[in-house]
Amino acid sequence: MKKIIFLLSIAIFITSCDKKEENNSLTELNKQKTAITNKIDSLNNTLKIIEAQISKLDTTKKHLIVTTLPVKKGLFKHFVEIQGVVQSDKNIEIHPELGGTVKSIFVKEGQKVKEGQILVQLDDSSIKNKINELSTQLSLAKTTFERQKRLWDKKIGSEMQYLQAKAQKEGLENSLATLKTQAKKMKIIAPFSGVVDEIFPKKGELTSPQFPIVRLLNLEKVYVEADVTETYLPVLSKGTELVVSFPSINKKVNTSIAQIGNYINPNNRSFKIRTNISNKDHSIKPNLLADLKILDFQENGIIIPSKLIQQDQKGDNYVFTIKNLDNKSTVVKTIIHIKKEYNNETYIDSGLTENDTLVNKGARLVKAGDVVKINN
Description:
The chain is α+β, with helices and mostly antiparallel strands. It is 30% helix and 37% strand. It has helices at residues 2-57, 125-153, 159-185; strands at residues 64-66, 68-70, 72-87, 91-94, 100-105, 112-113, 118-122, 187-189, 194-199, 206-207, 214-217, 221-229, 241-246, 251-256, 259-260, 270-278, 289-305, 310-311, 317-325, 328-335, 337-342, 345-350, 357-359, 372-374. Strands 3, 12, 13, 14, 15, 16, 17, 21 and 22 form a nine-stranded antiparallel beta sheet that branches. A four-stranded antiparallel beta sheet has the order 4-11-9-6, with no helix packed on it. A four-stranded antiparallel beta sheet has the order 8-7-5-10. The longest helix is centred in the first third of the chain and has 56 residues, at 2-57.
């Protein structure tokens, strides 16, 4: 037992000595590290001073070549881009009011017609026969009525005979007028001037009011209709500038909003807008897709290319500008505030003035404080 206690005492003594030596060694190393760090900082400061002096004295040093861009003010426009569809108020399918067999087709597809022109004639022979029959009956009824009237005026005959003759004549007149109206409905007439786009039935086919006979178009004036999200309701109004492009036919039209809908669609939270377009050459067709650029912001101010804007680790946007320091073109980091961006251009709200000069080509290669050579 005594031997065991003696050995444990020796082990504890050796361990405590090792820890003491370890602590002494760590403290010494930390002191050395601090001393070396201080020397490095001092040398770095000295090196910076020497480099600055060399930069002033060394005329052979090669500087990075950049181009510059003067800051200018201009009118900045921001557009909302949506898609619309071409429509026409005069794009209709004409249905017959009465069914019948196609007797004659007086026009061809693609033919221009005038308002009131007869396009298609349906078979009205049965109606004409009834008109002839009623005309004969009406002629007799008129003669009978006139005779009864003359007798009644002389107080000859009964009033009942006179009234019956009168009623028969007027009834036949009304029936004849109805038949003549029906006969007119057997003629398909153009309600406006335009172009016959399509004729659906062929001669001899039976038609009914459920099926169209002719599609008639007038493309002199068309309009584009589009859905706009309700977010833009406060900034859009009748007369707002917009640009309509038709990619399929490579055509662009500058116009304005002609009408704004008063109903918000609950399904997609949007409202409709409409713009009218003149279409003298008939190149714009109904249901053609259109790209709309609607002006939602415009203001005079400083506009710069978006490609020159960079962002630092703090999330601040900045550009590099050129300042003349000690007769040298020196790069300066300038913090800016972006208000709007569109079509590779950015409207700057603050941070730049018209007197500033931007680093253009080479802006991604320089850093703040660099002395550069300008070659425009």
